[in-house]
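For the sake of transparency, this paper describes our internal protein records without simplification. The remainder of this section carries one protein's record, kept here as part of the documentation:
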Amino acid sequence: MRYCDSVNIEVSKRRLGIHQVLWGSRQFLCMLAVFAFTFLAVSQAALGQTKTPANRAPNHAAAASSTTKKPGAATPDADMAWLQDALKNPELMNELNHLSQRLAKEIQYPALRTQSALLSRLPQNTVFYVALPNFGPQLRQSLDIYRQELQGSAAMRDFLQKNHLNTSEPKFEDGVAKFCDFMDYLGDEVVITGGFKGKEPNGVLIAEIKKPGLRAFLEKIDQQINATSTEHLRFFDSQQLEAATDHANQEPVVLIRPDLVVISTSTATLRAFNAQLDNSGSSFASTGLGKRLAQSYQSGTNSVGGVDVQQLMGLIPENPPQTRMTLEKTGLADARYAMMESHLASGRAEANMELAFGGPRRGVASWLSTPAPLGALGFMSPKASIGEVFRLKSPDQMFDDIVEIAGPGALRMLPQMEAQLNINLKQDILSKLTGEMGFEMQLPEIAADTPAQKMVAMQPSFTLVLGVSDPAGLQQTLKRLLAQAPMQNDERQEDGVTVSTLTLPSANGQTEINYFFMDGYLVIANNHELAKDAMHAHRGGESLAKLDQITSAAGQPAKASAIIYQNTGLFLSSILKELPPDVLNQIPQTLVTGDVKPNIMVATADDTTLRATSTNVMTSNVSMALIGAAIVIPNLMRSKISANESAAMATVRTVNTAEITYKTSYPRKGFARSLAAMGPGAGVNNCTESNTSAAHACLLDSKVGNASCITGKWCEKNGYRYSVRGICTQTSCSGYVVTATPINENTGGRSFCSTTDAIVRSHTGPAVTEPLTTKECSVWKPVM
């Protein structure tokens, strides 16, 4: 699909900054996720990109000239200083926050859909189905708000001009407007659906047409994109499709009927799907998944999707038979379908998920037990970044399932280990646990100066809570085990509860594990304060069990098969506090303090079905995107710098090897006096024997050894500049110095050099401005 591959989707200033406001809005992202693979042509035309015709080779000279640096222009390898400047610009940040608030408050979500005109028309062998609303009106409203804000914001316009985006901005807006125009032709629902041809996905995109003229509109867009190309999208009506044939490397093909538009990458797929659309026989709506999707429509939905798991199981090869046998033993082979639906309203997104089985769940599929009160939540703090509780079936029964799946041979060493430890795993440990298991993670406040101290300070705190049916018996087992372990074991009384502390040696000195039994639970924490907090939370203090978001989702007391609590605000807050003060001051304080609503997922299980409901609080605040960039980009830059430095060292070694080869090949010349002498030369497309000479020895690639890299000049590659200074008389060179230095501080932190001794040396600090001498290189530190 060269048509789609030709679209250059780059993560650059064009996609971040001001544009992130629209691209970051959930409506725009959601819509693009559906249509990207078919109508990228619209955005391609809007950004002024054109394809190279298939019968014409690309113009490398033009490509090279397009990447030549111009004064003040950004380069493909440019650093992300522009983004950091944006974060440090209070006026710009305020304008962007105001824009994001308008988007959040003024844009109305699409209405819930209570029926589908497409579901009943799909063939019975449909494997996957995803239906999304037409977000065209929301996208157009977003664009109108964006244009209004841009017109009234000098800070935003200055940002565009400073980053050389002001000329492409109208094209960007035009592209979004064209996309909205396209959506105006479609009904209120867009569906991606299909099955498999062999083992390859074979699907289509389908939507109702609500007004005439769609074909003429798309043909016009296609002509704008491919005015100079022989390749175009292929459009058919039903009659034309019958005579159409597949092309090698073909573009997407579009069927435009009076009622529907259908898009695929294969005319054969399109033809088969078209024939089934009007088939009055059994349809997808009569299958188990189809009926369940119809129920979602009846109760109202924004987005809904599902997969026929049984048909996917049929793709698993019979050989080797062990794979199929193992799947059967897990019970997962009994799954019939999986589906998910979502509802958007009032800044909240609720997603419902379901996995249905053909009969009673068994094996691993039966491990999640039926709903019951989850007392482990009562030991967990509201300060938790993550809190998870699962109600599983009896651990000794789970152990039997594992033995059944793995086979007795996998545990052949277990009896010997049990004899050495004087325990029976099932009887002494697993049978004494109820199956309820909770996990809590807290992130500490970071108060450290050095990176090493921060690494230690950032170590999270963990609490593990296990339901226990026989506390006294399990405690005796633990004492027998610990008596044989080489660790210190102390006990103390905390408000009438015995707390045991184990001290183990570790890389950071010592690691502490605290545990206690209380009201039918074993609580294990990796520090004393956390164990104490868990105890107080259970005895009536604040806990996750009393949190409003959890009680409203799962009741009081919380009753479910599983509850997963994620407070991304607390997690983000601990990271944000590490940002520079001038950046941190521009971030909304609700994010810095962690005052962000948590996300909750509640799962329930019955004999034949697993269900889960996830409630998320959404935000369209553009600061979130910029914050993520502010956190991630420095790490990416450090990784890029490290990669550039490694590549620079390797290139210096390559030049050393090339110098030795050059001297051997041209003894009268000695060493090469420049990089150009070891390169391929100007205008030479190959390095055959007739093209090599002492002037251009073809020992280096065209980036490091191009014809412009003469004595005293630099060549650039992977964020570094390279040069060779020869130690020469008029006719020959007895030595050389190769220098590699970063283009700027964001592409490297070290410079490198080497001489005829072939030892690579380095120096940390600002980039050098002139190629080094032998004396200057010799004082640098050798690279080990």
